[in-house]
């Protein structure tokens, strides 16, 4: 079990010979969504505002020139969190067939339209442009340690698999764009539910032909790890800047109580060998 300073681990639980599969939370853990989405929105808005071929309503032009795109991106992300936390695959009015599963891509598109309306950015982008912008999330920049760290974990004989609320096409595009060498892709889409629903964690282990205890979940979000832990998965926390939604008190309590099997803080690791590289180093011990 990890100690209060996060430097030790119960080798009986995290021995790499007993861990066949690493499951990965993607948004915020593997990739830096905040930087990518904010800069993409800024660039797109600037391009639109500077285009001599476009005639925007004056109110829209004025509003767009003053938008805090970082705050806009944060609200977009928060809408995703609320969507996945409250999603239920409800039944249709006939009571026989389930409503088709709504993907994260569909949510990102719908919520972008809502946010543009809230910010009074009517007419800033066409319907086709909004659709294209909503797919920003397919092309997120990885944290510097992610590609090489995942490769190192793979070389230890531990397979790496996404277990993300992002849909399959999103995760496929992201792997290609960011050169992320995970060996398998699993998505909440496969299970018709979103984390933290237990059927996602249990379904992932079953789909891989493993017991939950043979799998370890890596996340930068303690809520995700808490749900995985309740399903019997091992848990690895990797701290990322501005990513943990829990309060400092709750984070410190989780760390002190040692209920993650491995804890990698922002400053853990030598030089640039942090994050996933530090996880790989500890697993190799």
Key descriptive features of the protein:
285 residues; single chain; 12 helices; alpha/beta
Topology:
Elements: H1 11-14, E1 21-24, H2 33-50, H3 58-64, H4 69-86, H5 104-118, H6 127-134, H7 146-155, E2 159-164, H8 168-178, E3 184-187, H9 198-207, E4 215-219, H10 222-230, E5 234-238, H11 248-257, E6 262-264, H12 276-284
Helix pairs in contact: 2-4, 4-5, 5-6, 7-12
Helix content percent band: 40-55%
Indicate the proportion of strand residues.
5-15%
Which parts are unreliable, with pLDDT below 50 for 5 consecutive residues or more?
1-13, 91-95
Overall geometry: globular
How far is it from the N-terminal to the C-terminal residue, by CA? 15 Å
Number of strands: 6
The number of distinct helices, counting runs of at least 4 residues, comes to: 12
Tell me the series of helices and strands, N- to C-terminal: HEHHHHHHEHEHEHEHEH
Strand order of the largest sheet: 3-2-1-4-5-6
- Which structural class fits the helix and strand makeup? alpha/beta
Instruction: Kindly report the average pLDDT value.
Output: 90
Largest sheet: 6 strands, parallel
């Amino acid at each position: 079990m990890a100690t209060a300073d996060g430097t030790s681990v119960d080798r009986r639980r995290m021995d790499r010979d007993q861990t066949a599969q690493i499951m990965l939370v993607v948004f915020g853990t593997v990739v830096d969504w905040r930087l990518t989405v904010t800069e993409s929105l800024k660039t797109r808005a600037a391009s639109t505002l500077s285009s001599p071929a476009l005639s925007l309503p004056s109110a829209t032009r004025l509003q767009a020139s003053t938008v805090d795109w970082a705050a806009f991106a944060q609200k977009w992300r928060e809408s995703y969190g609320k969507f996945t936390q409250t999603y239920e695959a409800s039944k249709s009015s006939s009571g026989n067939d389930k409503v088709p599963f709504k993907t994260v891509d569909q949510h990102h598109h719908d919520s972008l339209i809502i946010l543009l309306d809230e910010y009074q950015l009517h007419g800033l982008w066409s319907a086709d442009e909004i659709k294209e912008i909503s797919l920003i999330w397919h092309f997120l920049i990885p944290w510097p340690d992610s590609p090489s760290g995942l490769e190192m974990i793979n070389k230890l004989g531990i397979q790496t698999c996404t277990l993300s609320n992002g849909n399959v096409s999103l995760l496929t595009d992201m792997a290609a764009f960011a050169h992320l060498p995970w060996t398998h892709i699993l998505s909440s889409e496969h299970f018709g539910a979103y984390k933290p629903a237990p059927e996602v964690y249990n379904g992932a282990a079953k789909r891989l032909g493993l017991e939950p205890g043979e799998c370890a979940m890596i996340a930068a979000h303690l809520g995700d790890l808490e749900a995985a832990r309740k399903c019997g998965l091992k848990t690895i926390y990797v701290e990322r800047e501005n990513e943990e939604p829990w309060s400092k008190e709750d984070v410190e309590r989780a760390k002190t109580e040692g209920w993650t099997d491995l804890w990698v803080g922002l400053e853990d690791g030598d030089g640039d060998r942090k994050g996933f590289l530090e996880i790989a180093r500890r697993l190799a011990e």
